[in-house]
Amino acid sequence: MKTRTLGFLGAGNMAGALIKGLLHAGAVDPSRIIASDLKPERLKQLEAAHGIRTTLDNHALVRDVDVLVLSVKPQVVDKVLTAVGREVKDGTVVVSVAAGVPIAAIEARLPERARVVRSMPNTPAICLAGATAIAAGTHATEDDMRIARALFEAVGRVVTLDESQLVAVTGLSGSGPAYVMLMIEALADGGVKVGLHRDTALLLAAQTVYGSAKLLLDTGEHPGRLKDMVTSPGGTAIAGLHTLESGGLRRTLIDAVECATHRSEALGEAMALKMGVGPAAKGGS
After folding, report:
1. Quick one: CA torsion of 2, 144, 130, 85, rounded to 10 degrees?
2. Is a pLDDT exceeding 80 seen at residue 265?
3. Which residue, among 126, 8, 127, has the nearest Cα to 71 in the 3D structure?
4. DSSP string, 48-109
5. Are 166 and 174 a contacting pair, CB within 8 Å?
6. CB-based contact 149:134 (threshold 8 Å)
């Protein structure tokens, strides 16, 4: 990665998170990162914060990089790639973070045998705690996948899947931060109801969710075993768990992931149709 020149085509929140993560990890020198965007003020902000290079010229960007991160909004991917896609250099690795845009649609707008990797990151990447799935395009090599993995490992954890599974990833980790925020808010409401100040309740709720997730990831234990560590016979936790089971929390969360996955699939099919490719490659958010 250190010898590559990275270009971010679009400099929104996810691009900013990836740039921050890469520099924080020392994976690449700021002089090897270039970002382009329509908003000069956003580019000035990134320059000041990270010392990277910026440009308003997408054509210059794609001609000057070895790794191109396609980080524009999904609805403008077609327009942007139609304008500059054919100028991408041979051998450039194109990493897409555009939710719902199929690999086939991206490949169709790039030179023949373009090396594409599609990703589905989530918003906690902004604080370097993201969860990302990556999928290889038709001509992506093992080295290309290692580059994509290194890119997203700078902002969290990464799994490699087939593109067809990205709809499920969108339903789980892509949409999941919204579910967790709702749970944190509800836990804090519960704390307020039993007498805690709002700020105190929110801090305790958020830290409890963070700490519990970290405990699971650090130990590798099954969540059921970690749950059992808290549930003393006749104690408070088992009383609370009984209430959650009675209210159908487990089923509701499963249904939420399934519903979001179906919605992701529908959005992916619509995007594929719009961009003139078949329904085989799906995924949305």
Report:
1. 100
2. yes
3. 8
4. HHH--EEES-HHHHHHS-SEEEE-S-GGGHHHHHHHHGGGSPTT-EEEE--TT--HHHHHHT
5. no
6. yes
Judged against a pLDDT cut of 50, whether residue 143 lies above it is answered with yes
State the residue for tokens 């768990």: 241
Q: Which residue has the tokens 């929104």?
A: 12
- pLDDT tens across 5-34, in order? 999 999 999 999 999 999 999 999 999 999
Looking at the DSSP bridge assignments, the partners of residue 42 are none
In the numeric block, which tokens belong to residue 140?
Answer: 């992506």
Distance CA 7, CA 10 (A): 9
Task: Report the percent of the chain where pLDDT is more than 90.
Answer: 92
CA distance 256 to 245: 16
Closest CA to 22 of 133, 110, 153, 145: 153
pLDDT exceeds cutoff 50 at 281:
no
**What is the C-alpha to C-alpha distance for residues 163 and 250, in angstroms, rounded to an integer?**
27
pLDDT tens digits, residue range 70-82? 999 999 999 999 9
CA distance 174 to 59: 31
pTM for this prediction: 0.93
Sheet holding 115-120, edge to edge: 53-55, 33-36, 6-9, 67-70, 93-96, 115-120, 130-136, 156-160
User: Cβ(47)–Cβ(34) under 8 Å?
Assistant: no
Q: What are phi and psi of 53, to 5 degrees?
A: -90, 150
